[in-house]
Design brief:
Layout lengths: L1 H6 L2 H7 L25 E4 L2 E7 L9 E7 L8 E2 L4 E7 L1 E6 L2 E6 L2 E5 L5 E5 L5 E7 L4 E2 L3
Antiparallel strand pairs: 1-2, 2-3, 3-10, 4-11, 5-8, 5-10, 6-7, 6-9
């Protein structure tokens, strides 16, 4: 990587590293970061583990991403959200319970859950169900 910065003009290299403001004050510097999941807090509750990979604590305002794993036979709590939700099922088999009926799925696939829709995810396999949740507003529990 050092060869790249040696080939750049000194001011361009410093701007790229974030050490100088951009030449054009209207230009927005693109800052990339690697977030290692091993360094993030992990929560586990009744067979569901979760990692908040991207959220407001990392400077993201418009969406959140969490990595979740459901152990065999485990289901999420019934919940809904007012924002958009997409769940990437990376591996495993499950059931999306929405609108009172189940929709079975096998990873890899994408689940699109409309706003204000009550839903529940169930792991129906003998292996962990690996999920990535991307949402604009965090889901909230469904009150019966």
């Amino acid at each position: 990587m050092q060869w790249l910065f040696r080939a750049m003009h000194a001011q361009t290299a410093l701007w790229t590293l974030g050490a100088l403001p951009p030449k054009n004050p209207l230009a927005r510097a693109v800052v990339m970061h690697v977030v290692h999941h091993a360094h993030l807090p992990h929560t586990t509750h009744e067979g569901e583990s979760s990692i908040a990979a991207v959220d407001r604590s990392r400077g993201i305002r418009d969406f959140e991403v969490s990595v979740r794993t459901l152990e065999p036979g485990v289901h999420t709590a019934a919940q809904q959200h007012v924002g958009e939700l997409v769940v990437l099922a990376l591996a495993g088999n499950g059931k999306l319970v929405v609108d009172g009926g189940p929709q079975r799925f096998s990873g890899p696939c994408t689940l699109v859950i409309p706003p204000r829709t009550a839903f529940e995810l169930v792991n129906t396999s003998n292996a962990p169900l690996q999920l990535v949740w991307v949402f604009t507003v965090a889901p909230t529990p469904v009150v019966a």
